[in-house]
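idk why but the lab printer keeps eating my pages so im just putting this in chat instead. protein + xanthosine-5'-monophosphate:
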Amino acid sequence: MTLIVAIDGLGVEEARGLTRSLCTRVAGFKVGLPFLLANGVQSLSELRGACPEKLWIADLKLADIGHVMKLVASSVASSVDAVIAHGFVGVRGALDELKEYLDSLGKKLIIVVSMSHPGAEEVYDKALPSILSVAAKLRPWGVVAPATRPAIIRETRKTLGQGVKILSPGIGAQGARPGEALCAGADYEIVGRLITGAGDPVASAEEVLSKQEEMLRRCKE
Ligand code: XMP
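predcted complex ->
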């Protein structure tokens, strides 16, 4: 399964209904700060109850010293399988401590190597070699790389190899087409508004899945 649905601007009941109906069709769900701040951290376990076996990711985009990132991660760790942190904070005294903490809990670390918005070219992409070397040292479970710039995904795969999962946001609202990131080497595509903002989110998710398949068929020919 290749689709991860991003839950940001929904209430708990709406999100529960959505996760329940998509549960068998997706690889997992990524819950962002807008949802957590509006509904409270405790809402995460309630939400997970609707589809407990899939991959649940807390997208806190952590970027702090290790001590503080661990404190923040500890507030969500029992309800999720993975936590996202920024790669630019570096290894020593930051991501090394977070990784060790998550490892001790059996949880996954995902680090951002670049972002999907246009401004990422101004700073993030220029630092790509350094951030990829952070990822190579840390060996996190996964990294986030933008569906909007497939060349970054290809570079990430080439540098980090097959041992890391690549998760790619930027599909739909930000312009990339379903399947483009998979064709460039990503393992999962993260889709938010295209699904959560649709009149019929389940139908929209089905459409994304069939477009992914079609695009993959074409790029493998
Ligand atoms: P949309 O609605 O644009 O939502 O499909 C995308 C989701 O993914 C997150 N996002 C990112 N997360 N690096 C990340 O770690 C990125 O480059 C990036 N771009 C989008 C966004 O927070 C939303 O949940």
